[in-house]
Backbone:
């Protein structure tokens, strides 16, 4: 067995590609019936589905972006119209969460 990718289900592939490209600055690497990005060499895919129960699952997996300046990263996303939750100070760093247009949770992380 080997690692393939990390993926999120989405309802509207065009809208999701715009969000991940325009709001988050990810570069689209290919697209056919799914959209593919690479994040620091890790394959990330957007997979369209009409089954709304598959969005924003209750599992533990989240796409988390490391940042060097948490307040600056939060403000940058907000300036692009992305609602971001409060910055939480935890034992070893800072965490803020936000959602894609389908409600999939994403996170920003800064080491303490």
Residues:
């Amino acid at each position: 067995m080997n690692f393939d990718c990390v993926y999120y289900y989405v309802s509207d592939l065009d809208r999701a590609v715009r969000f991940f490209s325009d709001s988050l600055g990810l570069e689209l690497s290919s697209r056919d019936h799914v959209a593919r990005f690479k994040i620091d060499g890790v394959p990330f895919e957007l997979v369209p589905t009409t089954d709304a129960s598959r969005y924003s699952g209750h599992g533990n997996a989240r796409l988390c972006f490391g940042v060097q300046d948490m307040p600056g990263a939060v403000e940058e996303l907000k300036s692009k119209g992305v609602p971001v939750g409060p910055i939480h100070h935890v034992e070893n760093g800072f965490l803020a969460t936000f959602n894609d247009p389908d409600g999939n949770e994403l996170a920003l992380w800064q080491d303490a």
